[in-house]
Specification:
Number of strands: 15
Largest sheet: 8 strands, mixed
CATH superfamily of the largest domain: Bira Bifunctional Protein, Domain 2
Order of helices and strands: HEEHHEEHEEHEHHHHEEEHEHEHEHEEH
CATH class of the largest domain: Alpha Beta
Number of helices: 14
């Protein structure tokens, strides 16, 4: 006897209250992105591997350890997308989307990374994503952050979530800071963790967000970006923080918040909470003005963020199955066709409706009552014809009766 197939480790089947919470996050995101006039896009689930290798860097952990890559029948290397931004940048360059700049786009869907599954983290996971491409002004950063802040508030989970903000400066500021970090950490190389010793040569900024106690001992005294900011970079960050204050978005400065890839500039941010254990970031992003050039395109300013749907849904909490507006009860099998007609008419007028027409006719009404709907329309037979009665508040009952009688 064959065994029942099991789910792949690190994936999940979502059902019931968890699925309702997941759907609530997506529906709220769709509503908010329309308020901010972000255009909806759909992206391929897989891309040429070079799209991610060139954008994320061949030596990053994502590319070297976490991507699901495979050769198709033609021998071309393809990769299941580990994130959205690189694919969106590729589409922007190859589809002529530059004519719409500044372009505000949003999407959501599954992503894939081969990593150790843990609370709120899976090998197939889902993200929301919002990007502004072709806008160099700090107002674009402010709008994206205000949008993320409003999303959290409309989901009812803003309490206990903090916006941490930092600047990485412009290109010259970042390079000067990077060189100072290399000099500083090189003097302590032997005492750093193995990962940070490796990062020292190729990604020294990442040492700043290391959680290893051996590294933390030196991070506090490491050079600070503020000592290397150009006047232009200071003005840019000042405009972002002033815009957030004007929009009523609370924020805190987090000098150790960094982005290791060289194409990141200026604003870096994370919305964090202590309600999800070690994996506390629920929304993260920043300005990546150098990405398009790394993909062979012209210099193009851009800023964006991504949010894990599973993590947001965990904060939302389980949501019960939605209650129908109206339950239509067929108490006489001779009236089943009339019941189908009634429930169809209700749905076409925007009511969520459920039909109860199976099981013991005597118990159908009791079953409908237990479903907790706002209204019950029962259909029986009187004098050879269908008889419809509605139990609901007066105004609602009158509207339903006008549709069904």
């Amino acid at each position: 006897m064959s065994k029942t197939p099991q789910a792949i480790r690190g994936t999940q089947d979502i059902f019931g209250p968890e699925a309702e919470a997941f759907a609530h996050v997506v529906e709220t995101f769709e509503r908010v992105r329309r308020l901010y006039r972000f255009r909806r896009i759909e992206m391929p689930v897989f891309e040429k591997t070079e799209v991610f290798a060139r954008s994320l860097g061949e030596t990053t952990d994502v590319v070297s350890k976490e991507m699901y890559s495979f050769d198709d029948r033609g021998g071309e290397s393809l990769t299941l997308r580990p994130e959205f931004t690189a694919g969106i940048a590729r589409a922007y360059l190859t589809n002529g989307w530059r004519q719409y700049a500044p372009l505000k786009v949003a999407t959501h869907g599954p992503l894939f990374r081969y990593e150790r599954p843990q609370k709120g983290r899976y090998r197939q996971f889902h993200q929301l994503d919002a990007e502004v491409i072709g806008a160099a002004e700090p107002q674009a950063d402010v709008e994206l952050l205000a949008m993320a802040d409003q999303l959290l508030k409309e989901l009812g989970i803003a309490d206990g979530v903090t916006l941490q903000l930092n600047t990485l400066g412009d290109g010259d500021s970042r390079e000067a800071w990077r060189a100072a970090l290399v000099d500083y950490f090189a003097a302590h190389r032997a005492e750093l963790s193995e990962d940070s010793q490796d990062r020292l040569e190729r990604n020294p900024l990442r040492i700043l967000d290391s959680k290893d106690p051996r590294d933390r001992a030196f991070v506090a005294d490491a050079p600070k970006i503020d000592d290397y900011l150009s006047g232009e970079a200071q003005d840019f960050f000042g405009a972002v923080t002033a815009g957030l204050d004007a929009a009523g978005v609370a924020w805190t400065r987090e000098p150790s918040l960094v982005r290791g890839l060289d194409y990141y500039r200026h604003t870096a941010f994370e919305f964090v909470t202590d309600r999800l254990g070690a994996q506390g970031t629920v929304i993260g992003g920043g300005r990546y003005d150098g990405l398009m050039e790394s993909l062979g395109g012209p210099a193009t300013p851009a800023v964006g963020w991504a949010a894990g749907i599973e993590r947001l849904a965990m904060l939302v909490g389980e949501r019960g199955d939605p209650v129908a507006d109206v339950v239509v009860v067929v108490e006489d099998d001779a009236q089943i066709a009339r019941g189908v007609e009634a429930v169809t008419a209700l749905r076409r007028e925007g009511f969520s409706a459920e039909l109860v027409a199976s099981g013991s006719p005597r118990k159908r009404f009791d079953k409908a009552v237990k479903m907790g709907a706002g209204a019950i329309a029962s259909i029986s037979t009187a004098e050879g014809a269908a008889k419809i009665s509605v139990r609901a508040e007066d105004a609602l009952a009158a509207r339903i009766e006008s549709l069904l009688l």
